[in-house]
Known about the structure:
Blueprint: E1 2-4, H1 8-20, E2 24-28, H2 31-40, E3 46-49, H3 57-67, E4 73-77, H4 82-91, E5 95-98, H5 103-131, H6 142-147, E6 159-160
Helix pairs in contact: 1-5, 2-3, 3-4
Amino acid sequence: MLVVEDEPTLARVYTRALVAAGFEVDHAPDGAAGLERLLAGNYAAVVSDVCMPRLSGLDLLERVQQLAPGLPVVLMTAQLDPEAYARARDLGSVRYLLKPVRMAQLVNAVQSAVMLGAAWARTEARRTSKHSSKSPSAILDPARRNQTARTPRTPGKGRERE
């Protein structure tokens, strides 16, 4: 799980809630750092703020859909902007949460996103196995992403990764 949030306090709160729900969590302080982490890692889902320096959450979502279609992205924002919401929906955000986000709401959104991403990965793996024998990199390979997807475990068994 990758949390992309530029506000350190919120990043800690979100990370703790997701770790308590059993997820392994990485953090990136802005969209550009989040994109770097995505390219270097293997994540079951992304949770991102919308308004951030260097690369907004909407721009990050757009890049995720280009690089790893089907990787679920949950966006959060403190500003209710109908145009941003419409863009997020059009780009494929699985959820668009308004801050302040209740931790139960965040955990439920992430659990749903992970399940949706795993289902998409299975479908895509079946589709691509019929049409190609080439294996793309881990971030672009939905089957590999699904194999290492972090699913919730018993509370308190998750961990935060640096």
